[in-house]
Amino acid sequence: MKSEKILLRFPKTETGKPIVYQLIKDYNLVVNIYVAKVTQDKEGYLVVNLTGEEADLARGKAFLCGMQVQVESVENGILRDNNLCTHCGNCVSHCPTNALHIADRRTMQVDLDQSLCISCSLCTTNCPFGACTSVL
Q: What is the mean pLDDT of residues 22-28?
């Protein structure tokens, strides 16, 4: 079994289709949706974690590409500008997965573990200094 965190960008012609259902049913994938967004222009964005056999993952991603869905690997769900960050810790209290955390209480420096980030964007809306931005 393999897991991949990916960003899916749906054209407006595809946002009303049961694509996630098809990934589960037809490609035997476990889909964990982190973020779902539809813009005013009806374009859709999903940040998901797909889990399955490598062959099923490859077939599922090929299916998505055939539906004109852009598939991008998400290594960094949140971008953090260390020059703007004052390490105030406000983001830490809003991070549901502890991706943003204080590793050393002596320095009180805020650290970001991208592997835990689910791109929820709670840090972006709660950072008073604009140090955190979303990939979406």
A: 96
